[in-house]
Structure formats: C-alpha cells, structure tokens
Design a protein that fits this description.
Layout (H helix, E strand, L loop, with lengths): L6 E5 L4 H12 L3 E6 L2 H13 L4 E5 L5 H15 L4 E4 L14 H29 L2 E6 L12 H21 L4 E8 L5 H14 L6 H6 L10 H12 L10 E4 L7
Parallel strand pairs: 1-2, 1-4, 2-3, 4-5, 5-6, 6-7
The structure holds nicotinamide-adenine-dinucleotide.
Amino acid sequence: MKLKDKIAIVTGAGRGLGKGIALRLAREGCNLMVSDIDIEAVKKAAEEIKTIGREAIFAKTDVSDKSQVEEMVNEAKEKFSRIDILVNNAGVTTVGHITKLTEKEWDRCLDINLKGVFLCTKAVAGIMIEQKNGRIINISSKSGKQGGLWLSAYSASKSGLIGLTQSLALDLAQYGITVNAICPGIVFTPQWDKLIVEYAKKLNIPESEVKSYYVKKIPLGRNATVKDVANVLVFLVSQEADYMTGQAINVTGGQEMR
Ligand SMILES: NC(=O)c1ccc[n+]([C@@H]2O[C@H](COP(=O)([O-])OP(=O)(O)OC[C@H]3O[C@@H](n4cnc5c(N)ncnc54)[C@H](O)[C@@H]3O)[C@@H](O)[C@H]2O)c1
C-alpha cells in the first residue's frame, strides 16, 4: 500500500473514472470522501470502499455550487481531521457544432469542468496550506492539448484546466503542495455510451462503428482503461512524485505527445 492512511477526496466518484480512481486509492490505503451529484451512485461507491476495509463517507455535491463544495470539504475535514489528496475528476462532455451549441450548454460545461475545479481547490487549499502538504490532481483530457471537432466548450474547459493547474502549482509550491493534471485519451466509461449517438452524427458513421473508429487512431492500438489512468494518478500522489508539479501528463496510448 503506497498511500496508507492518506485522506483523499474524489469528485464525480459515482461512476466511471472517478469511481475507479476512488476504489484504487482505497486499495492503496486511503480513506475517502467520495462526492457526486448522483447520491445513490456515490453511496454505493462508498459502500464498495468499505468492503475493501477502508473508511468512506459520501456527499451529494454539485462541484459548480460553492456552498455545496464547502459543505463537502468541511464534512471531510471534520471526519478525518486532514485532507492529503484532492482529485478533481467530476466533468461533463458537451458535444455540438458551434452553430448549434447554446450559451447554456457552454456555461454548464465551463461551470462544471473549470469553475468546479477552482471551487474545490479553493476549499481545500487553506487546509493543505496549514498542513504544509497536499496533492491535487485535475483530470483534464487530450482535448485539453488539442481542440476537437464539435468539442469547443469541452476543449476550452480542459485546456483552461491545464492553465489553471500550472497557476495553482505556482500559488501552492511554497507550501509543499503539488498540483498536476492527467490528460486521458479514450476511456470507455458510461459517459461514452451517452456520446455515441452524437459522435455517430458528427462523423456520419453508424453508431456501432464509433468506438472502433476512435480506437484505430491510437498508436498503441487499444483504448485506455481506468487502471491506466489510476496507475499514473497513484504515482503522482505518492512520495515518488515529490518533485513534480504543474505538469499535464498524457495517458493516451501515444495519441498526444505534447
Ligand atoms: N472517458 C473518457 O474517455 C475521458 C477522457 C478524458 C477525460 N475524461 C474526464 O474524466 C472525468 C470523468 O469522466 P468519465 O468518463 O468517468 O465520465 P462519467 O460521465 O462516466 O462520470 C462522471 C461523473 O461525474 C458526475 N458529475 C457530473 N456533473 C457533476 C457535477 N456538476 N458535480 C459533481 N459530479 C458531477 C456524474 O454524475 C458522474 O458520476 C471527466 O472530467 C472527463 O472529462 C474522460
């Protein structure tokens, strides 16, 4: 166990990458606050963590809502007395050609994917500064490194998140807190199932061909798994990565190299 008795918060932990990351952190020895807008899903995630033998509490939190975020962080601090790791994972993918994308969709995407990270980080920063220690991981995307067709809002949010990561890394370096981003490529999570219809439309191909269309573009010849992403995350929050901050690490099977 690389992270024995560390305290971690994972946002958007009800399913997909967030849930996988939370379970992996638990297996590495963390006790967790798992949060999500989907209370039933995150309650189940907390129960699964407890079966691994770690402590877990959960909260219904919309990361774009300041008071809900503060309440969730306070609850974690009250329960565990400290917060060692924050994983800003909650995010949504907004797909649409610029002529069709509405202002409401743009705002929602930026509010959750970018402002949500600002709010969560702001809420834990004071605690980590007092501890003179902390690890913050922001889940960006390969779309944060390169724009994508019909992905203007998503790509802007994830690219902004890389800038936010670098600036936070500078703000917090003097307190022994590191801030890094992970840029996954394609991970077939529940989010993807919802997107297939949109992607089939934008590529003008049958829905059944969407996944293989994207996988064919990956140099290593397969999609990423939650484990691929969690492996890098565990390294970045461990002592082995003490000297790394402000980085945006690609986990894309070679699709993105910058
Ligand atoms: N799956 C991929 O291919 C991929 C690739 C690159 C980056 N990412 C990023 O990884 C993160 C997780 O994605 P995923 O594929 O697991 O998605 P997902 O949709 O399967 O899971 C996202 C979780 O976030 C929660 N959530 C949504 N809005 C929220 C809000 N306002 N507040 C709190 N929780 C909220 C959802 O309820 C859900 O449980 C996202 O930030 C996404 O952009 C995913």
